[in-house]
Amino acid sequence: MDTARRRARYRALFRQNVPRRLAVDRVMRGVVLACVIVAIVPLGSILAEVIANGAQAISIEFLTAAPGAVGSGEGGVGPAIQGTLVIVGLTCLLGVPVGIMAGIYLAEYGRGRLAGAVRFFTDVFMEFPSIVMGIFAFFVVVLVLGHFSAWAGAFALSLIMFPIIARTTEESMRLVQHTYREAGMALGLKKWAVTVRIVMAAARGGLVTGILLSVSRVAGETAPLIMTILGSSQFFGGFGGPVDALPLRIWRLSLLPYDSAQLYGWGSALVLITMILVVNVCVRYALMGGRASPLGMLARRRAGARP
Predict the structure, then answer these.
(1) Which of helix, strand or coil describes residue 230?
(2) Which of 32, 196, 210, 235 is the most buried (most CB within 10 A)?
(3) Helices marked H in 55-189 — which ranges?
(4) Are 253 and 262 in contact (CB under 8 A)?
(5) 65 Cβ partners below 8 Å, 6+ apart?
(6) What's the CA gap between 82 and 104, in Å, rounded?
(7) pTM of the model
């Protein structure tokens, strides 16, 4: 009877508490929804403004032709699109391997003062203004080589890219359960094989997200490019000379008092946003399509079965 009475009393207390909990739940749902709206409205307004003002400039000539005379309303941003792809590609070649290796070291091997120093300076690098990276690249690369170049721009942007990738890689790999590592070691794999074939495969989503975030960040940077690639109205002629880029072209068009220049600036901004969106969607579709367990795939391979 005592147990039945306690249960009855708990049920009564639960029934009395339900309305208050439901009210708190509704309030918190409203607060969360309001925060989402506050975050989405500015982003949506920016996208709507760019699309409304930039769609008028989009044409085959705009996307493929070289810039025309200033204020003439002729030409396009073909060299800037080409230069952006070149600069971002070079930046990924320099920044992605360094960032991933640093993240692996911090997550799997880094212990003691050295790891603490690497983590500290990585965080400091993430907070540096981009113009500081551009000035550093100007002194280290441009002055040493004696000319502006795509390599200088890629070097400056890679300094912005690799800390983002390093920290996201470290955090993503730390989220992988330790039992994955133990199971890999039980299969007779060495430490590096467990890290590469199991832990990194399980943390693939975080690694891809970090890389895409860093690419989106550097693709829109202007200040480092002013100090490193100079800009050009011609199509890409080599890694050792000045090149153009969409952020740099947008900045220069925004300074001109001509209506055609302002229109081309909006169009360039729309092209840049579209390029980043396409890259994000394509990379996620290509790399995140299959979500099979890496440990299960490894066990099946070692057993001689088809994965």
Answers:
(1) strand
(2) 210
(3) 60-64, 78-104, 112-127, 130-137, 143-145, 150-174, 178-186
(4) yes
(5) 75, 76, 78
(6) 33
(7) 0.82
d(CA 258, CA 98): 43
- Identify any residues that bridge with 75 across adjacent strands, giving them in sequence order: 67
- The answer to whether 55 touches 270, Cβ cutoff 8 Å, is yes
User: For residue range 71-127, what is the model confidence (pLDDT) as tens digits?
Assistant: 787 889 999 999 999 999 999 999 999 999 999 999 988 888 888 888 888 888 888
Nearest 5°: the CA angle 69, 73, 76 is 80
pLDDT at 132 (0 to 100): 92
Q: Reduce the DSSP state of residue 248 to 3 states and report it.
A: helix
Task: Tell me, rounded to whole angstroms, the distance of Cα 60 from its chain centroid.
Answer: 29
Q: Residue 191: helix, strand or coil by DSSP? A: helix
Least confident of 4-13, 38-47, 298-307: 298-307
CA dihedral 216→177→106→297, nearest 10 degrees, is -70
Residue 146's CB is within 10 A of a number of other CB atoms, namely 7
Strand partners, 243: 230
Residue 216, exposed/middle/buried by CB under 10 A (0-12, 13-18, 19+)?
Answer: middle
What is the CA angle 85-77-221, rounded to 5?
50
Instruction: Find the largest Cα–Cα distance for the chain.
Output: 95
Give the alpha-carbon dihedral of 127, 132, 134, 136, to 10 degrees: -110
81 token code pair: 């699109």
User: Among 2-11, 25-34, 193-202, 291-300, which is the least confidently predicted range?
Assistant: 291-300
Q: What letter does residue 106 receive in the DSSP assignment?
A: I
What domains are there in the chain, each with its CATH number? 82-303 (1.10.3720.10)
Span between the terminal Cα atoms of the chain, in Å: 59
